[in-house]
Design goal:
With 154 residues, this protein is mainly alpha-helical. It folds into 2 domains: 2-105, Tetratricopeptide repeat domain (Serine Threonine Protein Phosphatase 5, Tetratricopeptide repeat); 110-154. The chain contains 8 helices and no strands.
């Protein structure tokens, strides 16, 4: 519930709400990427770019496929005039966003099509999330070798 509230605060630009969230976290929250994303957003909002960079990079290190932290980092790179890097990151974020839209359009009782799993694996590789990419590629390999009933629940 706390994660949902901070996301609402971030999206609405509620600086006091984000500050309250950050000050109320338990001490072990520093291994949660959402803490670092919120901290990065706050520093970016305050134009504290080095601190924002550090926080957003930590959020991405903890959860490489965090498209929201990557989007914030792209904004930061634009502010620093690093337009080529910002554009590359923005394209990755847009790919993630489009993929999320496609996934959300799948009915709950449907299987995720292999082409979406393939795109998700590619996105994980582009985000340097080897663990997710490897797991998805292994799943795809299994599905592709399981014959005519592939991608069916067992």
């Amino acid at each position: 519930m706390l994660a949902y509230k901070v996301d609402v605060n971030l999206r609405s630009g509620d600086v006091p709400g984000v500050v309250q969230f950050l000050s109320s976290l338990p001490t072990d929250a520093d291994d949660d990427n959402r803490f670092w994303r919120a901290k990065g957003w706050l520093h970016l909002n305050r134009n504290e770019l080095p601190k924002a960079t550090e926080a957003l990079e930590e959020a991405i290190r903890l959860f490489p496929m965090d498209w929201y932290a990557r989007n914030l980092l792209a904004d930061l790179l634009r502010k620093e005039g690093r337009l080529t890097e910002a554009e590359k990151l923005h394209e990755l974020v847009q790919s993630a966003r489009q993929l999320r839209i496609r996934i959300n359009a799948i009915a709950l009782d449907e299987e995720i099509p292999n082409d979406i799993l393939t795109e998700l694996a590619r996105l994980a590789e582009q985000c340097n999330d080897g663990q997710v990419a490897n797991a998805l590629n292994q799943r795809l390999k299994m599905l592709n070798s399981s014959g005519p009933y592939r991608n069916k629940p067992r």
